[in-house]
Amino acid sequence: MSDDPSTDSGQAIGELNVPSRVLLGPGPSNVHPRVYRAMMAPVIGYLDPQFLQLLDDTQRPLRALFRTKNDMTIAISGTGTAGMEAAVYNVVEPGD
Q1: Least crowded by CB within 10 Å, which of 42, 58, 64, 83?
Q2: What residue spans carry the region label Disordered (predicted)?
């Protein structure tokens, strides 16, 4: 018997069917079906011309929202911690 479950023909793992519940705790939380559908869409690479166009299209409204003309205004794909670090990094100067 192999240690790799994907090559073990003796056992199959079936589909996980979790009943629909209202989750009221701090997490995990319920996910709207529209979000699940979006997550099933094909992934676009960060060097794909279509992604670069999407990034440009995102920058314009962000500049308007934050009332800036800074060309380096970008959306950050990351955790909340990554966003907070980016915010602090852009506000704090060396020696502060």
Answers
A1: 42
A2: 1-26
